Amino acid sequence: MLDSLQRIVQEVSSAHDLDEALALIVERVKASMNADVCSVYLSDEARREYVLMATDGLRPGAVGRVRIPFGKGVVGLCASRAEPVNLENAPDHPAFIFIASTGEAPFHGFLGVPIVRRRKVMGVLVVQQREQRRYIDEEVAFLVTLAAQLAGSITQAELRQSLDQMDVDDLDTLFVDGVACARGLGIGRALVLFPEARLDSVPDKKLGLDLDLIEAECSRFRLAVDAELEELKSLAARMGRILSPGDQALFDAYAMLLGSDSLVNGTLERIHAGNWAPGALRATVAEYANVFEEMDDAYLRERAADIRDLGGRLLRRLHQNKDAPPVEYPERCVLVGEELNVSQLLDVPPERLVGLVSVRGTGASHVALLARGLGIPAVFGVTGAPLTKLNGRDVVVDGYSARICIQPGTQLREEYERLAREEAELSRGLLELREEPAITPDGQRIHLLANSGLFADINAARDSGAEGIGLYRSEIHFFLRDRFPGEDEQTATYARVLTSMAPRPVTLRTLDVGGDKPLPYFPIREDNPFLGWRGIRISLDHPDIFKTQLRAMLRAGAATGSTDGLSVLFPMITMVSELDEALELLRQAHAELVEDGVPAHFPKVGVMIEVPAAAYQVELLAKRVDFVSIGSNDLTQYLLAVDRNNDRVAKLYDSLNPAVIGVMQWLVERARRAGKPVSVCGEMAGDPAAALLLIGMGIDSLSMSLGNLLKVKWMIRSVPLSVAQALVADVLGLESAQQIRAAAEEVMIAHGLAGLVRPGQH
Ligand code: PEP
Ligand code: MG
User: Which is the CATH superfamily of the domain at 2-166?
Assistant: First the structure.
């Protein structure tokens, strides 16, 4: 039965529309269960009825006509109870209603199971038998399992159908939920990018001895190489504004490979020998990559991946029909893809890009990090968005409520535009706070710092009133390369960060990869990566990588001559011994540098509290360091056991959950008892309502994405500390995140901050 179950689910998921999906379901289920009838009823919310949508066994003419009111009949019973109804003789049941038009008089045995998606009953899947019989447990289990799996496919098919029927000029508006990866509202037109051809599946094609054909293929290939070289140059120039010169090394490496004889001449030779350009390219890339793969030197071995990637880029160019117009980016472009990547984002002229939508990918992906750095709203994980139908449609990327809106009607669009205008006005209005201190009306000073990882946001941080960088995510520098950066390279990067911000302080966090942030050149395959090898655990297991980074950080501090500008922060500490080991390696790195004559100061050191075990031992940890920094993103994830990037459980992920607030309050109190300053550097810090609570708890500084800094400053300058403290005391007794948010927002509104309170914002 498992076999037929999987087969049915697979077939249904590839159905093009709802009718096809439902027809497949009823036919296959009836056959697998040897039933006399199989039917699907779906709910019509507006009319509060279940509609017979497909049947194999009842009269076909009844489809679409038979409607059963909610709560009526055995179908209604099954839906309202949201559980299977298994009846030996359905007509005997008091809820049974007879509908002659279905032609179902002769049927007795009845099994209905609800079709449920995300807690909502969407309909009922029914099988019926001519004779009187109760379905056995195994059959009930089969149908229940099938219905659970089909719910998603039915929704998909429904979406595909509603989009099919949509006119570009607008019929119905459609919302699709995802995970917000960069906040803000982007209103524009969708440009859908489809997966590109794979180089290794390109076939050979003989050109014969036709010299004209051979020459045409050669020039097609040369044109592709020239175009790619040009493209790399302009990409590198565009990246220059965002990345450090070192981070651009990838582009230089590609350009060098293209300029080298082997790849280009090797391909041309194969074309002359009679293969078409894509086939010749595939064979040359394979040969050339193999040579590198055989090399002893690890760095050179890694070049094989570059060659394959470059081969893929050239193939795309060869496949481009030269008569086809170049990609036209809409004036307000919402880039949509199965899994967007960095170069697709960078290909769009920056002034045209207003939003990003990706079916796969998470908030921790490169593209998401870039989107946040560039201030472009992004919603990922929109598994319900049928890509093939989106191109050219109006789309709103709502990075506040984590969803996209396809084809907003006139009114809705106006509403979104109004919100976007307000957002822009608010940001403009807040600009005058840039130079003002973040001080509460009753005199409590709070330090507001920026989270960063790209050069673009460091420049912006400097100009936007941030008092320093409270969290520099050093792994971003590692992501943007094709291998571990060396000590000199890292030193240059960190020195640039420190100098750009000087004299303002910078907290450099040591490498935090693993979990949802794998490095492309250091693959870690684990069943449970969030509970696996990540953050400090990798660093301690690889003192080679870790000490290189620590030395680079200290050398950068020495090079910029700042005595207290540099702090080092350790991520994902779970046990006291880990902190002791990390501190020991830092001391060693420092001693070695001093021995080598480098005038390195010992930096301030912070510990991140983002694992519940570390929260519990915060006093012991705080004693060993200069400050404590709470990583509320991971702390929330681990306290609630909710994957921070999984759209299925996204609704459960809320840092205002009473348990999170309670633990935070508990740990802030203890860290302060140890006499150490406490900061928060997770997303909570940038959410004005959450920040209000954090201040009430006694937090000294908040580090956040830049876009939120002035909003939080406005909040701090408006609400007295005493009010924030009273609020914390009040919310500690509340039962849900919603109640806590409402209480915080009520205080904000009472202090003239209605502009920061927006329904559906979180
Ligand atoms: C956090 O976990 O809150 C944090 C700031 O670290 P990251 O988001 O980089 O994991
Ligand atoms: Mg973290």
Answer: GAF domain (3.30.450.40)
- Residue 517 Cβ inside 6 Å of ligand 1? The answer reads no
Q: Hunting for tokens 């269960």 — which residue is that?
A: 33
Crossing angle of helices 18-32 and 137-164, rounded to 10°: 160
Q: Which CATH class is domain 441-755?
A: alpha beta
How far apart are the CA of 572 and the centre of ligand 1, in A? 9
The H or E element that residue 451 is part of is strand 447-452
CA of 718 to the centre of ligand 1 (A): 28
Handedness of CA 228, 243, 486, 528 (dihedral sign): negative
Taking a C-beta distance cutoff of 8 angstroms, is the pair 395, 355 a contact? yes
CB 679 within 8 A of CB 628: yes
Ligand positioned closest to the Cα atom of 573: 2
Q: How many Å apart are CA 265 and CA 255, to the nearest integer? A: 15
CB-neighbour burial class of residue 128 (10 A; exposed 0-12, middle 13-18, buried 19+): buried
**Which of 451, 512, 654, 705 to probe ligand 1 with, by most ligand atoms within 8 A of CB?**
512
Q: What Cα–Cα distance (Å) separates residue 253 from each residue in 61, 275, 303, 479, 599?
A: 66, 28, 9, 16, 34
- Atom 3 of ligand 1 has which residue's CA nearest to it? 631
Q: Is 319 a catalytic residue?
A: no
Q: Does the pLDDT of residue 248 top 70, yes or no?
A: no
CA of 302 from ligand 2 middle (Å) equals: 29
Distance 621 CA to ligand 2 centre (A): 17
Q: What is the dihedral of CA 205, 210, 216, 219, to 10 degrees?
A: 90
Check whether 506 has a pLDDT greater than 60.
yes
* Model confidence pLDDT, tens digit, residues 379-438: 998 877 777 678 889 999 998 888 899 988 888 888 889 888 888 888 888 889 999 999
CA distance linking residue 122 with residue 120, whole number of Å: 6
Give the pLDDT mean for 203-207: 78
Catalytic pick from 272, 366, 601, 751?
Answer: 366
Provide the residue ranges of all domains of the chain, joining segments of one domain with +: 2-166, 174-185+338-346+353-426, 199-319, 441-755
* Residue 512 Cβ < 6 Å to ligand 1: yes
3-state secondary structure (DSSP) of residue 107: coil
* Sign of CA pseudo-dihedral 177, 182, 185, 189: negative
Burial of residue 150 (CB within 10 Å: 0-12, 13-18, 19+) is buried
User: Is 366 marked active-site?
Assistant: yes
pTM for the predicted model, two decimal places: 0.73
Query: Is the CATH number of domain 199-319 1.10.340.30?
Result: no
Find, among 214, 292, 296, the residue nearest to 253 by Cα: 292
pLDDT (tens digit per residue) in 257-284: 787 777 888 899 999 988 889 889 988 9
Homologous superfamily of 174-185+338-346+353-426 in CATH? Phosphohistidine domain (3.50.30.10)
Tokens of 648: 């299925």
Per the model's pLDDT, the better-predicted residue between 251 and 522 turns out to be 522
**Nearest CA to 361 among 476, 238, 518, 157?**
518
- Residue pair 556/495 in contact (Cβ under 8 Å)? The answer is yes
What's the rounded Cα separation, in Å, for the pair 374 and 218? 40
| Among 43, 151, 45, 36, CA closest to 90 | 36
State both tokens at 35: 């039933």
**Per-residue b or e along 200-219, where b marks 16 or more CB atoms closer than 10 Å to that residue's CB:** eebeeeebeeeeeebeebbe
Question: How far, in Å, CA of 334 to CA of 330, rounded?
Answer: 8
Which token pair is 202?
């390109």
d(Cα 444, Cα 693) in Å, to the nearest integer? 14
- Cα torsion 296, 299, 301, 306 to 10°: value is -170
